[in-house]
Design brief:
The chain is α/β, with parallel strands linked by helices. The chain has a single domain, classed as TIM Barrel (Alpha-Beta Barrel), CATH 3.20.20. 53% of the residues lie in helices and 17% in strands. The protein is built from 11 helices and 8 strands. It has an 8-stranded parallel beta barrel with strand order 1-2-3-4-5-6-7-8, surrounded by 7 helices. α6 packs parallel to α8. The longest helix is centred in the last third of the chain and has 15 residues. The chain binds SN-glycerol-3-phosphate (G3P). The site of SN-glycerol-3-phosphate has 9 residues, from α7.
């Protein structure tokens, strides 16, 4: 499974980049806004210097022609930029056009398997179902991943399933069991995935016992 980090914070990206386990980065307008008064372009370029993999940058336009203009501009910032488009009708149209031009597209805000099928047909490189936000409204987010992975496995679409809106380690484990190609994971969830008190306690005891041999 590929691991993307879901943040626009450079320190967070650098920390996990050091371990060599980050394959890409996803950002969205809310994550960029959290970083304060920074230029979108500068931040995406900074991220591309740290991670040699797909870096999703989201368009703000919601109308087809504007989406194309903005998408082409974002793609021009760096060869690893993936244009993130909302799964609305104009977004779907723009996905097809940009994908045909060779620009990689990540379709975001996917909440149903039928939306995912349309995105795959429109040539999306990544499809991002938001599981945490479905869980928030008492809909089983993980079932959406199951359905999309199942549907795409029947055909030859190039689209990869990018599990998004991940809220806890179990989301990632379940998505991996289902065969989601990628999970994009917030920094705090990455920490929770790795930390284990028994590992820390076990090491503490080993080191303490080793001193007895000196
Ligand atoms: O990349 C966007 C997505 O992961 C958002 O997550 O927690 O705001 O639903 P969340």
């Amino acid at each position: 499974m590929k691991i993307f980090i879901d943040t626009a914070n450079l320190d967070e990206i650098k920390k996990y980049a050091e371990y060599g386990i980050v394959d890409g980065v996803t950002t969205n307008p809310s994550l960029v806004a959290k970083e304060g008064d920074i230029s979108h372009e500068q931040r995406i370029k900074e991220i591309c210097e740290i991670i040699d993999g797909p870096v999703s940058a989201e368009v703000l336009a919601t109308e087809y022609e504007e989406m194309l203009k903005e998408g082409r501009m974002l793609a021009g910032w760096h060869e690893n930029v993936v244009v993130k488009l909302p799964t609305i009708r104009d977004g779907l149209r723009a996905c097809k056009t940009l994908s045909d031009e060779g620009i990689k597209v990540n379709m975001t805000l996917v909440f149903s398997p039928s939306q995912a099928l349309f995105c795959a047909k429109a040539g999306a490189t990544f499809i991002s179902p938001f599981i945490g936000r479905l869980d928030d409204i008492s809909e089983p987010g993980m079932e959406l991943i199951e359905e999309i992975v199942d549907i795409l496995s029947n055909y030859d679409y190039k689209a990869e399933v990018l599990t998004a809106s991940v809220r806890h380690p179990r989301h990632v484990v379940e998505a991996a069991k289902i065969g989601s190609d990628i999970a994009t994971i917030p920094f705090d969830v990455l920490d929770k995935m790795f930390n284990h008190p028994l590992t820390d306690r076990g090491l503490e005891k080993f080191l303490k016992d080793a001193k007895k041999n000196k």
